[in-house]
Amino acid sequence: MTAFDYDLFVIGGGSGGVRAGRLAGSLGKKVAVAEEYRFGGTCVIRGCVPKKLFVYASQFPEHFEDSVGFGWQFGETSFDWKRLVAAKDREISRLEGIYRRNLENAGVEVLGTRAELVDAHTIRLVTTGKTVTAEKIVIATGGSANPHAALPGHELCITSNEAFDLPELPRSILIAGGGYIAVEFANIFHGLGVDTTLIYRGKEILSRFDRDMRQGLHRAMEEKGIRIICTDIIEEVRKAPAGGLVAHTLEGQALAVDTVMLALGRDPNTEGLGLEAAGVEVNEKGAIIVDEYSRTNVPHIYALGDVTDRVQLTPVAIHEAMCFIETEFKNNPTKPDHELIATAVFSQPEIGTVGLSEEEACRRYPEIEVYRAEFRPMKATLSGRAEKMIMKLVVDAASRKVVGAHVLGHEAGEMAQLLGISLKAGCTKDDFDRTMAVHPTAAEELVTMYQPSYRIRNGERV
Ligand code: NDP
């Protein structure tokens, strides 16, 4: 019989928190999950899910255009932004309901309140002011868009939060940043007919990706009509006298647009959480410091997902939650595995990737082989669309292991999921070579690139 109100109290009802709470509840533990906003977290409410729905919406104009080459003819088309937003809202409300029900069905107490730590075992429920105690605590409060408060005029700008619910679709938008969110939203807004410009401080968008993916996507986006400005940043945003905004850049440009969106990374949600009172340490970015089991410096307090700023991805938070359950409630200490995480950028075309970029592989291995194919996908032959797919395998020459796989093109995200299995299993290039192709597909290129396009030995291309 525990002296605490709960065996486990979870702060944050997003991907990591809900999974931890639900699994603990289904093991018969007394569990509560507190959420101050909406169950489902960033992913469901204002992240992955609504984003993907908007990606689908933004792809239709190209589908309509492509259909002509296949014999179709159609009349005038039109797009209703408000209908899309309403449809998206219905879907996320449905998913939110499922998240709640899953918790309730596992016997978890669902608390619609902000929760803050009072000490290492005590939590204050902000809505009622009541305090409760728990033997173990999980902090899974996620992150939020960096508001870039140092930028004069930042209060005139939106982040991805507002982008999902704009009252009107802007005629023009300037998006700052070169990461996942900036690139995905630039493609979404452009596809929906918005005059779109992206401004990024570095030399090439998507700094942590393989160079071929970065350059290939940059080219494809520009060919569609998205303007990309590199090596520049916004210095100030002001209201224009005639309406709209003007963004002044370091390089002296004045960009007049309806909307400016900042996509400059996300910060962990730890402010005002009572971490100091509980003795939980954070790093200089405010992220909770955890060990390899997701345990904070206070042994019965764990932190999962984006609030720890390890890898900001939904499946990673879920995985960390499952490892926490194994460790704490199943007597099976399990460390989350952050190696070889497959991921996708839902740009148009998509990027799907797993493992090392060519540049990283060169630094890690004395000799690598690069297998690369660039081709026009079959659908583009009749549609007449000028688009290229790029596929790339990076192989450690000594072990023959495929250490990186990168795809730019339609369904690259779907391919990345399956490539993830192959790389996780440690497949060699010879395993790829003896795998029969699925014909006719684009993915068959991945198993038919028999000769290396080039080798890199000690950093030199040979
Ligand atoms: P990212 O870390 O991907 O990108 C942030 C961008 O902002 C980078 O281009 C960075 O430049 C730039 N930047 C940061 N600070 C400044 C600054 N002070 N001035 C100018 N530029 C700056 O973050 P996002 O916000 O795009 O996304 C957050 C996280 O959410 C991602 O890391 C990802 O894990 C996750 N996510 C995943 C998605 C998916 O799986 N498809 C989709 C959306 C988000 P630089 O590169 O030079 O550092």
Write a brief structural summary.
With 462 residues, the chain is an alpha/beta fold. 31% of the residues lie in helices and 24% in strands. It has 13 helices and 23 strands.
Spell out the blueprint of helices and strands.
Elements: E1 6-11, H1 15-26, E2 31-34, H2 41-46, H3 48-68, H4 81-105, E3 109-111, E4 115-119, E5 122-125, E6 131-139, E7 143-145, H5 160-163, E8 172-176, H6 180-191, E9 195-199, H7 211-224, E10 227-229, E11 234-239, E12 245-249, E13 254-257, E14 259-262, E15 266-268, H8 275-278, E16 301-303, H9 314-329, E17 343-345, E18 351-355, H10 358-364, E19 367-375, H11 379-383, E20 389-396, E21 402-408, H12 412-424, H13 429-433, E22 454-457, E23 460-461
Parallel strand pairs: 1-2, 1-6, 2-3, 6-16, 8-9, 8-14, 9-10
Antiparallel strand pairs: 4-5, 5-6, 7-15, 11-12, 12-13, 17-18, 18-21, 19-20, 19-22, 20-21, 22-23
Helix pairs in contact: 1-4, 1-9, 3-4, 3-6
InterPro entries: FAD/NAD-bd_sf, FAD/NAD-binding_dom, FAD/NAD-linked_Rdtase_dimer_sf, GSHR, GSHR/TRXR-like, Pyr_nuc-diS_OxRdtase, Pyr_nucl-diS_OxRdtase_dimer, Pyr_OxRdtase_I_AS
Function: Catalyzes the reduction of glutathione disulfide (GSSG) to reduced glutathione (GSH).
Keywords: Disulfide bond, FAD, Flavoprotein, NAD, NADP, Nucleotide-binding, Oxidoreductase, Redox-active center
Structure write-up:
With 462 residues, this protein is α/β, with parallel strands linked by helices. The protein has 3 domains: 6-144 and 267-329, FAD/NAD(P)-binding domain; 154-264, 3-Layer(bba) Sandwich (FAD/NAD(P)-binding domain); 343-454, FAD/NAD-linked reductase, C-terminal dimerisation domain (Enolase-like, domain 1), CATH 3.30.390. It has helices spanning 15-26, 41-46, 48-68, 81-105, 160-163, 180-191, 211-224, 275-278, 314-329, 358-364, 379-383, 412-424, 429-433, and strands at residues 6-11, 31-34, 109-111, 115-119, 122-125, 131-139, 143-145, 172-176, 195-199, 227-229, 234-239, 245-249, 254-257, 259-262, 266-268, 301-303, 343-345, 351-355, 367-375, 389-396, 402-408, 454-457, 460-461. Strands 1, 2, 3, 4, 5, 6 and 16 form a 7-stranded mixed β-sheet that branches. A 7-stranded antiparallel β-sheet has the order 17-18-21-20-19-22-23, with helices on both faces. The longest helix is centred in the first third of the chain and has 25 residues, at 81-105. The model has no long low-confidence stretch (mean pLDDT 97). The site of NADPH dihydro-nicotinamide-adenine-dinucleotide phosphate has 22 residues, from helix 6 and strand 17. The active site is at 439 (proton acceptor). Residues 6-321 form the FAD/NAD(P)-binding domain.
